[in-house]
Amino acid sequence: MADTFWTDRLAAAKAMVAAYDAAILALVSGAQSYQLDTGQTRQLVSKANLASLRSARDGLLNEVATLEARTCGRGTHVVPNF
After folding, report:
1. Residue 37 DSSP label
2. Domain presence at residue 18
3. Which residue, 29, 20, 77, is CA-closest to 51?
4. Which structural domain, as residue segments, surrounds residue 14?
5. Mean pLDDT in each 10-residue stretch from start to end of the chain (82 residues)?
6. pLDDT attached to residue 70
7. Pair 28, 46: CB distance under 8 Å
8. Would 27 be classed as within a structural domain?
9. Is residue 74 included in any domain, yes or no?
10. For the chain, what is the domain count?
């Protein structure tokens, strides 16, 4: 059952990355605002939020890498968030 726990966490983290990617893409493509729905919360974001959206997405990508390593039994390399 532990495998299911990590697999479920990985799927949830990937879904959140996709949500952040959709928001970032919409905003850089000209949208003035975007309804970010992570499955846990909904918030209206704008171009002023791009830096924090990218930072959150980068953190989630690191989490995905870690979770993939746990589910596949590999080591992980975490890139610093600048």
Report:
1. E
2. yes
3. 20
4. 2-69
5. 81 96 97 93 96 97 93 66 64
6. 85
7. no
8. yes
9. no
10. 1
The model carries a pTM of: 0.82
Distances (CA, A) of 80 to 6, 26, 27, 59, 76: 23, 26, 25, 9, 13
Beta bridge partners of 45: 34
| CB 15 within 8 Å of CB 59 | no
- CB crowding 4-25: b at 16 or more within 10 Å, else e: eebeebbebbbebbebbeebbe
Q: Report the distance separating Cα 61 and Cα 51, nearest Å.
A: 15
Residue 77 within any structural domain of the chain:
no
Distance CA 17, CA 42 (A): 14
- Separation between Cα atoms, residue 37 and residue 68, nearest integer Å: 23
Here the tokens at position 38 are 């992570």
DSSP symbols for 40-68: S-EEEEEGGGHHHHHHHHHHHHHHHHHHH
